[in-house]
Amino acid sequence: MSTMNLVLHVWRQAAADKPGKFERYDVKGVSEHQSFLEMLDLLNERLVEEGVDPVAFDSDCREGICGTCGVVIDGRPHGPQRATTTCQLHMRHFKDGDELTIEPWRAKAFPVIRDLVVDRGALDRIIQSGGYISIRAGSAPEANNMPVAKECADLSMDAAACIGCGACVASCPNASAMLFTAAKVGHLNILPQGGAEAADRVRNMVIQMDAEGFGHCTNHLECEAACPKQISTDFIAKMNRDFFGAMLGSKKAVSARKAGDR
Ligand code: SF4
Ligand code: FES
């Protein structure tokens, strides 16, 4: 098993109101089979033994589904591998002697809590403003009571793949949350079950997104490139159309769901 030695420049910041700076760490004996977070675990074990505060970073599932992890590695949210969360990034993609810069998500709406951990509560508040269906549905209905066109089901599933990690925000020069919000609006508005509240949903979620201080989309498309779930920016175009329809009071603009309609 080959191992490698790395030089890390890690952002250290004790609290949101404290100044931060990069600290240099030499990490030796990293296995190519370790994940990026396991490599940080290795560093932290050593720091604890030395009586130094370990580097704070977020993680939970460590299998690419919860959206909790995420750091900027050499300027790229989630690092160099496309469609890969930080927890699923393996050290075989790096080489012995590499010097890496590791930072938290940078966005005004994501204040740093400590080191590499940021507060992504703004994304939760966008969901709270409309990312649900409020109708009491009772027990699970028979599956074929409300037929859903396969194209709509597939498109909704594509949007529902968003894990809420925030890499789209971190990658955007405007710190825009349009891709996240569009995915969360889209996966419900595309389905017939989401149609009744579609206009209110898109209006409220976009208003909340703006209130949280995220920037606007100016079509850099960095979000789509950084997204570990490869959410398409087509959903942003669809959300814009739904939003303008909702603001103009046209129910038709947000409720008519046809196959292939984004
Ligand atoms: S759209 Fe992609 S990058 Fe943005 S929060 Fe969802 S999964 Fe993460
Ligand atoms: S820890 Fe859950 S997606 Fe990375």
Describe this structure in words.
34% of the residues lie in helices and 13% in strands. It contains nine helices and seven strands. The longest helix is centred in the first third of the chain and has 14 residues, at 36-49. The protein is of the alpha+beta class. It binds iron/sulfur cluster and FE2/S2 (inorganic) cluster. Residues 162-168, 179-180, 183, 226-229, 231 line the site of iron/sulfur cluster.
User: Helix share of residues?
Assistant: 25-40%
The ligands found in this model are:
iron/sulfur cluster, FE2/S2 (inorganic) cluster
Number of strands: 7
Based on CA atoms alone, the radius of gyration comes out at 21 Å
Class of secondary structure makeup: alpha+beta
Our estimate of the beta-strand percent is 5-15%
Indicate the overall shape.
elongated
The profile of the biggest β sheet is:
5 strands, mixed
Distance between the termini: 48 Å
Instruction: Report strand order across the widest sheet.
Output: 2-1-5-3-4
Count of helical regions: 9
Q: Runs with pLDDT <50, length 5+?
A: 252-262
User: Can you give the mean pLDDT?
Assistant: 93
In N-to-C order, the SSE pattern is: EEHEEEEEHHHHHHHH
Q: What distinguishing features does this structure have?
A:
262 residues; alpha+beta; five-stranded mixed sheet; 7 strands; 34% helix; disordered C terminus; binds iron/sulfur cluster; binds FE2/S2 (inorganic) cluster
